[in-house]
Amino acid sequence: MTSLRTLVAIPAWNEAGSIADVIAKVREHRPDADILVVSDGSTDDTGDLAKAAGAIVVILPFNVGVGGAMRTAFLYAKREGYGAMVQVDADGQHDPADLDRVIEGLVEADVVVGTRFHPNSKYLVRGPRRWAMVLLSKSLSRMNRGTISDPTSGFRSAGPRAIDLFAVEYPADYLGDTVGSLSIAIRNGLVIHETPVTMYFRQAGRPSKNAIWSALYLGRAALAIIATTTRARRTPKADAA
After folding, report:
1. Which residue(s) pair with 34 in the sheet?
2. Tens of pLDDT along 107-127?
3. Alpha helices (runs of H) in the chain, residue ranges in sequence order
4. pTM of this prediction?
5. How many helices (H) and strands (E) does the chain have?
6. Quick one: which of 91, 96, 101, 84 has its CA closest to 201?
7. CA distance 87 to 152
8. Closest by CA position to 183, among listed 221, 236, 239
9. Please, are residues 111 and 195 in contact by the beta-carbon 8 Å criterion?
10. Phi/psi at 124 (nearest 5 deg)?
């Protein structure tokens, strides 16, 4: 079991319907960890309910998206000297019962991604979004030289090297917090592993983007990564001078 001081980071945007329950479940499974809720421009009672549930709360004055909220969390983790940070969604999609597995994987890796795609999973994604996710998975796995089957999973942990990197370089655009951060980690030589987790559909609130928008974004991201890897394989020409 890792002895790293651990922070559980929960980005939250208008999650008053689920935030207290998520905090209670995290505390049940990891009573040793501190819990940070980044209220991302919420206009409901998310921040107040998180404080009442015993979490540390950072309130952003306006909505900057999950990437911006997570960058705030990484800055906090680095400033306060945490050795491990794990992200948990505020809408109840992630099962805190898997926290041990996601955190303990940091013994052998810098980033551990919880994947919902494994033989015992009941989480289904179909249509264009699934196709784009498969394309992203193949592209990032090739860059990583190891399998990344769920590149858009936000249920993931970061060790000391990843916290240092993401505190200064973390994508703030939509889904950049998942796809883009993995690309950044690979380019900086971090070790990425996967572990199976259980995921559910959200308990409350609503997603920031619809399914069609997400599929289009994922497809564009996959093509951008393929273009990057193709350029990286080219052999530099010899200096003719």
Report:
1. 7
2. 999 999 999 988 777 777 777
3. 19-29, 46-52, 65-80, 99-104, 127-144, 160-168, 181-187, 211-232
4. 0.83
5. 8, 7
6. 91
7. 13
8. 221
9. no
10. -115, 135
Give the integer Cα–Cα distance in Å for 98 and 211.
26
Q: Rounded to whole angstroms, how far apart are CA atoms 137 and 133?
A: 6
Residue 123, both tokens: 């989480």
Q: Does pLDDT of 71 surpass 90?
A: yes
Burial of 36 (0-12, 13-18, 19+ CB in 10 A): buried
Residue 41, CA distances (Å) to 59, 135, 161 in order:
7, 33, 29
| Range 172-182 burial, b when 16+ CB lie within 10 A, else e | bebbbbbbbbb
Count how many Cα atoms sit within 13 Å of the Cα of residue 55 in the half-sphere of its side chain: 31
Looking at the predicted structure, is the pLDDT value of residue 129 above 80? no
Return d(Cα 166, Cα 79) in angstroms, integer.
12
